[in-house]
Amino acid sequence: xxxxxxxxxxxxxxxxxxxxxxxxxxxxxxxxxxxxxxxxxxxxxxxxxxxxxxxxxxxxxxxxxxxxxxxxxxxxxxxxxxxxxxxxxxxxxxxxxxxxxxxxxxxxxxxxxxxxxxxxxxxxxxxxxxxxxxxxxxxxxxxxxxxxxxxxxxxxxxxxxxxxxxxxxxxxxxxxxxxxxxxxxxxxxxxxxxxxxxxxxxxxxxxxxxxxxxxxxxxxxxxxxxxxxxxxxxxxxxxxxxxxxxxxxxxxxxxxxxxxxxxxxxxxxxxxxxxxxxxxxxxxxxxxxxxxxxxxxxx
Amino acid sequence: xxxxxxxxxxxxxxxxxxxxxxxxxxxxxxxxxxxxxxxxxxxxxxxxxxxxxxxxxxxxxxxxxxxxxxxxxxxxxxxxxxxxxxxxxxxxxxxxxxxxxxxxxxxxxxxxxxxxxxxxxxxxxxxxxxxxxxxxxxxxxxxxxxxxxxxxxxxxxxxxxxxxxxxxxxxxxxxxxxxxxxxxxxxxxxxxxxxxxxxxxxxxxxxxxxxxxxxxxxxxxxxxxxxxxxxxxxxxxxxxxxxxxxxxxxxxxxxxxxxxxxxxxxxxxxxxxxxxxxxxxxxxxxxxxxxxxxxxxxxxxxxxxxxxxxx
Lengths: 299, 311
Known about the structure:
The complex is a heterodimer. Chain A has helices at 2-10, 13-48, 66-73, 76-104, 108-123, 126-137, 143-150, 162-187, 191-198, 203-231, 235-239, 248-258, 262-288. Residues 292-299 of chain A have low confidence and may be disordered. Chain A is mostly helical. Chain B is globular.
């Protein structure tokens, strides 16, 4: 960068102008898109969250806190989403950590293959992979029937339960947890484990005192990457929960489309954004603790 | 003890801890790891296999059991005008989206190398925001923006704008630009800058340096970005459903609507074709990159999957 700056300084005035112009042209389309379709909509949502519902739906200008009061007085979808996202994150961790560790300790060729096999379903349609669980958990293939006969009763109907939603969440977001975990574990110095064992540490002590601290950054990154989208998940509770598991995503859609109460929905959306920002601030604090320089990178 | 004796004893002390002893517990853990990993991959692929299998189900209507093999439902799906219209719409949206997002994202990644730290940090914040803010929030906020501004435009000018392809494309380009930007920038930061500098020292014009050095090195990320943008747009349900208008509904919207009334073999046939198409694109992209890397005489370039996994 400094070399570029030095070169830039040497350029004559028209040259510098042309360089500036080129930079602007390069960055402008993305910048315009971010401002018009990201910043502006979010600003509108914040403004609307203080308004009132117009007579035939939509938004009427006002400055009231009713929407927030209403959202806080009926916090169920919010709390359910928090629990569901927390459970989903823990589920992804329990499934993903051993998997990431296993992949990271394979030979290079095997590693590449296993990662590729993880990427492929991630590329294919999320919607299709989610609705497939309707078939698996439904009456046909009969995971429910199987479980039912195991516990001795009749059919256990999993569809429409929070458990079905949880399966969908873990299934859908698992790769996002495994990638960062894999990256940290893969870079880990394996001699550390040997050293720990040579020093007489047991398996559990080695895991707790060596592997886990090394994997921690990946673990936290992965958790953030799955927790936040899970908080706002809409398709999974709608399909696998049959709409009965009513999470934030569903509540937002009801507010905006069915009730056409934009201010109410906006207040809820702001709540979701606040949770997101709190989580990310915590994350940045964690990443930057004990460091002089600040990093904004998340991925 | 003399100094020469020390090296002789060291290996003997170290040996017991490094040698594989009979460790039933350790091998048990290894077995458990293998079983767990195998189970996870079954878990990941089972739904895909089930959908494909049930697309070949020989039944009359909604069926819970597999009743025999037939390709009837593929024919029915391909004859269904609604399916074909949705498919056309999906392409009408996904292709311009991928072109725009790839251009914008790549341009921004290159441009951001040339700006000050403050601008870059601000831009980074927006990029990460567009990726991390839950999709449903962005979708509804975009809907509100479009609806409000369309109303305003109508009262001001009398022109009535409607939801349709442009609104879907505009909304999709936001997310996908960030995606391409992140992919290309990751590639840029890992790039050997001495090549570009050598090119400049050899009096190549900036454009020529870009065309002959930077662009070929960035190509895997650009191709991956293009294909990912296409796929995400092609598969997107949440944003599309809120910013589409009458007549512009895409395949995921068709599938979602069908599935809520019960999964039919026709839905599965459509889904199976989408899966096949997506996988084919992935393979073609990978093949192109492998070919390009080999032609350029580079080794160890594992291609698109690696680019995606590393970002």
